[in-house]
Design brief:
This protein is an all-alpha fold. It folds into 2 domains: 2-121 and 217-240, no CATH class; 134-204, no CATH class. The chain contains 9 helices and 2 strands, in the order ααααββααααα. It has helices at 2-9, 17-33, 37-54, 59-80, 97-118, 123-132, 137-166, 173-204, 221-240; strands spanning 82-84, 90-92. The chain has a two-stranded antiparallel ribbon. The protein starts with a helix and ends with a helix.
Length: 243
């Protein structure tokens, strides 16, 4: 839900999605062609500044969404710094530090590029862009259904938790565990029922084709794409620049 709030509330909401996708693709290319960990880190910082200062994504929200992926990256880098000998003893591997730094820098740059795309572009616009790029309709329909079910799931969780708290369902640890189990059981049944109802509704309307949406018109799409392509080329050049 936080991603959707940022996607609909940023200053680049009316910028065409192909422009933002072009800049994100350039960020991914820059992450992999960076000549050093420092260059990759510069790309990550610049992509983050573009999202927060240019698009107006709140910095706290950006860090909150980047924290899980950054934690997973930290654990991965920590595993690279440990070596296992033939007798199954653990030791630090200082020789792996350059590889660890390169992995961390490129991963952070790629993460910043992707976050810049998803935090400034609603999923409906992304699906429209993927449809124009001739992506398989089956994958797009699955994305639409999963996107809808996320909101159904979130609303069901909110309603059930509100009802449980009103009945003091978490007043003690024992009651809290029991409420959590009932919540999981209730959600499993409710999501299945709503998914089945959605399937029956589609069959009743002879819904055997692709799911379609009205695509909005974006002003200055050509200009925005050209600016994004130029900025992406500069980002790649920055990744190849050595100090």
């Amino acid at each position: 839900m936080l991603i959707e709030q940022a996607a609909y509330g940023n200053r680049w909401r009316q910028v065409c999605p192909q422009a933002k996708a072009c800049f994100a693709l350039a960020g991914l290319v820059a992450a992999f062609v960076a000549v050093s960990p420092g260059a990759a880190l510069r790309v990550a910082v610049l992509s983050c500044m573009v999202s927060c200062l240019g698009a107006g994504v709140p910095g706290g929200l950006y860090l909150r969404l980047a924290a899980p992926a950054s934690g997973f990256l930290a654990l991965s880098c920590l595993s690279l710094s440990v070596a296992v000998d033939s007798d199954f003893t653990w030791r630090w591997a200082p020789d792996a530090l350059p590889e660890m730094a390169a992995l961390a820098g490129r991963s952070l740059a790629a993460l910043a590029a992707l976050l810049g795309l998803v935090l400034t572009t609603p999923l409906t616009d992304l699906i429209g862009l993927l449809r124009r790029l001739r992506c398989p309709e089956v994958l797009l329909d699955l994305m639409v259904l999963c996107y809808r079910m996320l909101f159904v799931f979130s609303q069901a969780v909110h309603d059930t938790r509100t009802a449980q708290q009103a009945r003091l369902g978490d007043v003690t640890t024992r009651h809290g565990l029991r409420s959590l189990g009932r919540l999981a059981a209730h959600l499993a049944v409710q999501v299945w029922q709503r998914g089945h109802a959605l399937h029956l509704a589609a069959l009743a309307r002879n819904g055997d084709g692709a799911l379609r949406f009205l695509a909005p018109d974006f002003a200055h799409a050509g200009r925005d794409t050209a600016v994004a392509a130029l900025a992406g080329c500069l980002l790649i050049a920055l990744a190849r620049w050595t100090v």
